[in-house]
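Might you be able to review the protein record set out just below?
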Amino acid sequence: MKNNKAIAQGYMTVGEVAKKMDVTVRTLQYYDREGLLSPSSLSEGGRRLYTDKDIVKLHQILSLKHLGFSLDDIKNRLMPLDTPNEIADILAEQAQAVQKEITSLSESLRELEALRAEVLQMQSVDFKKYADIIVNLQMKNDYYWLIKHFDDQTLDYIRSHFDKDSGKAFMDTFVQLQDEAIRLHNANIPADGDEGQRFAKAYWDMITQFTGGDMGMLPKLIELGQFEAADRKWKEKQSLANVYVEQALGVYFSRMSINPFEEGKE
């Protein structure tokens, strides 16, 4: 009670301000140390004392902080400004920063929901695959879901031979060639003709890039369209493309006098 009597009329202690403004005493002490909001006075005992004017300034600080401004921004960029236009410009900058954060959070939400769906479909806990899925989601790879179908050997091979850019480029090439195979098939382009064989060479070049000369990896690439639990549309598309791919490659291998499938078995 003696301490309360010692407080002059019109002043509030740090505890009273903290309670009134729903902040902690430690927060007010920090604002004081940072020179953002210093008490108007000190009691004889060294207690911080605040006035209604200080409350108004604290309200301003808390409101701007709610909008995402840092304490440094409030102190050094906002408070010194003199004109509405200057303040409006700073608010516009902050609005852009908030929009970027919203976009980033929306992407994180999309990735979380997609990963959750993949986790539920997988038959075991595998954080290495989770990490690969997340990376492919970040890359905007629509075929991230294929990862759960690969075995550890194949994934280790992919991790050691491809980085983000080359992995995405390879997948884009694979999808483009599958689309081209369907186009050629639907257009009745002969697999043994010039156009069909140009396609076969491009397809074989892609396979060679993936295998790096290791024909033992060839069956893994073929599995891309044969996963039992793969998306139905994906399987249908790959089955249709593979009809033309097999015809074109069959002619190509015959003319080259090679049998890579036999090499892969060895």
Q: What stands out?
A: The mean pLDDT is 87.
